[in-house]
Every structure is written in structure tokens, then in C-alpha cells.
Design brief:
- The protein contains 17 helices and six strands.
- With about 425 residues, it is mainly α.
- The strands form two sheets. A three-stranded antiparallel beta sheet has the order 1-2-3, with no helix packed on it. It has a three-stranded antiparallel beta sheet with strand order 4-5-6.
- Strand 5 and strand 6 form a beta hairpin.
- Helix 2 packs parallel to helix 17 and helix 8 runs antiparallel to helix 13.
- The longest helix is centred in the middle third of the chain and has 27 residues.
- The site of s-citryldethia Coenzyme A (SDX) has 22 residues, from helix 16.
Length: about 425
């Protein structure tokens, strides 16, 4: 029972609506407005800027302080001391695994990495120049057609197996989409490589010679996945939850999340950052792009800057920037011209009153694209990498909702269309 209440009085009405105020373990209190409808009102919050859509125990973000916790653990500590597989376990099960649990989980994930051979035939139905996000969206949804044995969402074991299958197969399908686009043969996953190394091997190995995965690059790939693993109720995760609330199977819910992630305002930003940096082309052009970003008449936005929640800095961007320096110096690209433009652009933007006043700081996508480019990942694959990293977060939120009590998501609206009017039957000739 709530101890605190918000009281709502509305002009012209003598009714005071008493709304419970609920507190979580961290972050803002919420005003429970569920009873408003029975009083004849809806709330209005386009873009859900002030709306908590659910209760969750998975991830907490404090946008003012630049805090990101996964099951209470700060992202900076996880990035330094943990790895992607361990964070996947943490997101799914709520606690860090002990060494035996981690080893067993790792073996399970590695042993689910192959996909049905029939999927190779499905892939061949796409154009060679299809965007890999279009392919992944299709293939992830199509996974539902292969696993009828585990689609009962009320069955805990089915939910767990599905989580393993999605986390394991996303890198395989992503690498297949890439190989298909360049006309090279698919490379099967290997059970002797780590998650990040296995992905790089599937992406860049060929049947013609051994491909050695650099441990530094495998670690960088793993950290990029880790930094994208979850981010509370962002657009794609909210899409997964809404699709899941109808009882749809998890493969289609994750495919819906992939679709939402593709947008340049969300996960598509990393691809858009690289295209923007390429368009800037030289440090001497930066000022004109800053001016475009500030011009209200110009739809151009500085990609990789700004965030709905972070209003000081994105803690992931800080870690990503460190990784960027490590990877580029490891590859002898410390003087990469694109990186120099990015660092100069960041410096100028952070000193500009427009960006300071609107609290626009580099987000996770600003530096990730530069690392991915250095790793040899083509720009069109950047958002696919984001999708691989975010899959455990999507699955954890889907599982949290389905294993608890939930209702089908069905928002209302402020209707401003025509009032009721009759069909002009007398005009019928
Ligand atoms: C991700 O939600 C998540 O958690 C997402 C994510 C995750 O991990 O899931 O963190 C991943 O999506 C990161 C964001 C990647 N997107 C981009 O980098 C695209 C560029 N950024 C913008 O599109 C924008 O900043 C958003 C979409 C990120 C946030 O948009 P909001 O919260 O709706 O803010 P807004 O668009 O209302 O902007 C507020 C003001 C506006 O000016 P005014 O109307 O107040 O005058 O800031 C301006 C905007 O014009 N603004 C920018 C800008 N971002 C906002 N101006 C120039 N360049 C920008 N990048």
C-alpha cells in the first residue's frame, strides 16, 4: 500500500483524484495513474518522456549523474573486469555466475551457435546488396519456424532455451549476412573460440587459409557487445516488451526489436556517425556542420550526440573512447584522419553553448563506429553489431515481463480528428 499520494484537481471539477506515489530502490518515484481512466482522463506524453511503462530489476540509468547499472553493477566495472558472456548471464539470471556456472553457460552458448542449414537457402533469397539489418530482421523472425519444440512462452524451460538460441545464433546469422553480401562462403562457428573471437572468425576467415583472431581485437569486440547489452526501456526494448505483451513468440518479438533499433535516432546512429564523419571529410569543415546542427530550419543533427536520458555524459561513451584509443594504437591507426575529425568535433561541440545548453554529449554510438571501422567491419554492419550486443537485454526484459504478471500494452490517444458526421448518401448519383 502506498504511503504517499499525488492529488489531482482539475478546473471546473470539484473532484480531487488521489494517485498513489510509488518508490523504487533507485531513481525517480512514479505516480500510479492507472485509475485516471475511470475518472474520464488519459495522460498525454508523446515519446514517453515522463512515462514509466513497467517495473524492472534489470538495468538502472541516472541520466544526470551518468550512471548505468546492470543488476546493480556499474558499467565501468563490468567493462573492466567482466566479459560479454558473464554480463549475458547477469542480465538473464540476476546474479554473476560462479566459475562453474560461467563455464557451463559458456559451453551451452557455444553449442547453440549453428543455425539450421535451411537458413542458408533463405539467405540466398535476398539481393546481394540487401542491407544486413533487413536480412537479420527477416532471419530472426524466421527462427520461429524452426523451433516449434520450444515456443510455449508459459514454459520456463522453453523461455531459457530460446534465450540461448537467440544469443548464440545472432552472431552466426550476422556473419552469414555479411559473407552473403560479399559473395564469400559462409564460415561455420567454432567451439574453441570466445564469443567475440568466434564472430570475427566467421566474419573474416575464408576456407583458403587459417585465420588468426587477434586477442586484442577479440577483447575489443567483446567489450563493444558488452557496452550495448542493455539500456532499460529504450525504443527497441520497449518494442520487444510491447510485442511480447500480446503473447507473440520471442523470435518475432526480438525481430521487432531489431526493426526498431535500425532507425538513425536509435541504433542506426553508429552507421550515421561514420557517414557524417566521412561527409565532413576534413577538420576545416567541422564548423559548418556544427552550424547545420544548430540551425532549427535544418533537419541535420550531429549523429552520436544527445540522449533522451543522459544529460551529462554517457558512461558507455567514456569506456568506448578508451577502447577506441587502445584498438587504433594496436592497429597503428592512432593518426586515423576520421578519429582526428571525431575528436576535434567532440571538443568543439562540448565547448559550444548550443550543445552545452541542450546537454548534448557524445553517446555510445559516437566512438563505436570508429572502433568497428578499425576492426574492418563495414559500415552497413554497425547496427547489426549493436543488435548482437542488445539481444541479451531484449531477451532479459521479455523474460522478466512474461515470467511476471503483465497485460497487453494498449496506449490511448488525444483524438483531434473530425467529429462524428453522416455519410452523404443523398449525394449518391
Ligand atoms: C541510442 O534510449 C536509449 O537508451 C538509446 C540508446 C540505447 O542504448 O538503447 O542509448 C542508444 O539510441 C543512443 C542515441 C543515438 N542517436 C543519435 O546519436 C542521433 C542523434 N541524436 C538525436 O537524434 C537525439 O539526441 C536523440 C534521439 C538521441 C534524443 O532525442 P530526444 O530526447 O527526443 O531529444 P530532442 O530530439 O527533443 O532534442 C532536444 C533538443 C532539440 O532542440 P529544441 O527542439 O529543444 O530546440 O536538442 C536538439 C533538438 O533539436 N538536439 C540536437 C541533437 N540532439 C538533440 N541538435 C543537434 N544535434 C543533435 N544530435
Amino acid at each position: 500500500m502506498s504511503e504517499k499520494f499525488a492529488r489531482l484537481t482539475i478546473d471546473g471539477s470539484d473532484v480531487t483524484i488521489e494517485l498513489p506515489v510509488l518508490s523504487g530502490t533507485l531513481g525517480a518515484d512514479v505516480i500510479d495513474i492507472q485509475q485516471l481512466t475511470s475518472n474520464g482522463y488519459f495522460t498525454y506524453d508523446p515519446g514517453f518522456v515522463s512515462t514509466a511503462s513497467c517495473e524492472s530489476k534489470i538495468t538502472f540509468i541516472d541520466g544526470e549523474k551518468g550512471i548505468l547499472l546492470h543488476r546493480g553493477y556499474p558499467i565501468e566495472q563490468l567493462a573492466e573486469h567482466s566479459d560479454f558472456l558473464e554480463v549475458i548471464y547477469l542480465l538473464l539470471y540476476g546474479e554473476l555466475p560462479d566459475p562453474q556456472q560461467k563455464a557451463s553457460f559458456g559451453t551451452t552458448i557455444l553449442r547453440h551457435t549453428m543455425v539450421h542449414e535451411q537458413m542458408l537457402e533463405m539467405l540466398k533469397g535476398f539481393r546481394r546488396d540487401a542491407h544486413p539489418m533487413a536480412i537479420i530482421c527477416g532471419l530472426i523472425g524466421a527462427l520461429a519456424s524452426f523451433y516449434h519444440d520450444a515456443l510455449d512462452i508459459t514454459n520456463e524451460h522453453h523461455r531459457e532455451v530460446t534465450a540461448y538460441r537467440l544469443v548464440s545464433k545472432m552472431p552466426t546469422l550476422a556473419a552469414m549476412a555479411y559473407k552473403f553480401s560479399i559473395g564469400q562462403p559462409f564460415i561455420y562457428p567454432r567451439n574453441d573460440l570466445c564469443y567475440g573471437g568466434n564472430f570475427l572468425h566467421m566474419m573474416f576467415a575464408t576456407p583458403c587459409e587459417d585465420y588468426h583472431v587477434s586477442p586484442v581485437l577479440a577483447r575489443a569486440m567483446d567489450r563493444i557487445f558488452l557496452l550495448h547489452a542493455d539500456h532499460e526501456q529504450n525504443a527497441s526494448t520497449s518494442t520487444v516488451r510491447l510485442a511480447g505483451s500480446s503473447g507473440a513468440n520471442p523470435f518475432t518479438c526480438i525481430a521487432a526489436g531489431v526493426a526498431a533499433l535500425w532507425g538513425p535516432a536509435h541504433g542506426g546512429a553508429n552507421e550515421a556517425v561514420l557517414k557524417m564523419l566521412d561527409e565532413i571529410g576534413d577538420e576545416k569543415h567541422i564548423d559548418q556542420f556544427i552550424a547545420k546542427a544548430k540551425d532549427k530550419e535544418d533537419p541535420f543533427r550531429l549523429m552520436g550526440f544527445g540522449h533522451r536520458v543522459y544529460k551529462n555524459f554517457d558512461p558507455r561513451a567514456k569506456v568506448m573512447k578508451e577502447s577506441c584509443d587502445e584498438v587504433l594504437s594496436e592497429l597503428g591507426l592512432a593518426d586515423d584522419p576520421i578519429l582526428k575529425i571525431a575528436k576535434r568535433l567532440e571538443k568543439i561541440a562540448l565547448e559550444d553553448d548550443y550543445f552545452i545548453s541542450k546537454k548534448l554529449y557524445p553517446n555510445v554510438d559516437f566512438y563505436s563506429g570508429i572502433i568497428l571501422k578499425a576492426l574492418g567491419i563495414p559500415t552497413e554492419m554497425f547496427t547489426v553489431i549493436f543488435a548482437i550486443g542488445r539481444t541479451p537485454g531484449w531477451i532479459a526484459h521479455w523474460h522478466e515481463m512474461i515470467s511476471g504478471s503483465y497485460r497487453i500494452g494498449r496506449p490511448r490517444q488525444l483524438y483531434t480528428g473530425p467529429k462524428s458526421r453522416d455519410y452523404p448518401i443523398d449525394n449518391k448519383s
